[in-house]
Design brief:
This protein has about 80 residues and is α+β, with helices and mostly antiparallel strands. The protein is built from two helices and four strands, in the order E-E-E-H-H-E. The protein has a domain of about 50 residues. The strands form two sheets. The chain has a two-stranded antiparallel sheet. The longest helix is centred in the middle third of the chain and has 22 residues. The chain is elongated and about 50 Å long. It starts with 8 loop residues before the first strand and ends with a strand.
């Protein structure tokens, strides 16, 4: 019995976007995403190129947004329950 799609990320109750993960897969995504930040930021700090920082941040945000779009509840503005 399938009750519909299994979302990894719950939609926020108010506003637009996602809240905390619903499943262990979502928590793994968040943990790996934060781990990459922690691992890469020290090496970026040693460089003086702002473009590297911008590209890294944009790529990380785009990656998380993509996973949330793919495996999260559909986006729409929410006004509460």
């Amino acid at each position: 019995m399938d009750s519909g799609p299994r979302y990894w990320f719950r939609a926020k109750s108010y506003g637009w976007g996602w809240g905390l993960p619903l499943t262990w897969e979502g928590w793994v995504v968040i943990t790996v995403w934060l781990g990459v930040w922690v691992a890469v930021i020290p090496s970026l700090r040693s460089h003086r190129h702002v473009l590297e920082h911008v590209v890294f941040v944009a790529g990380m945000v785009a990656a998380l947004f993509g996973v949330c779009c793919w495996k999260g509840e559909p986006l729409r503005w929410r006004w509460g329950d």
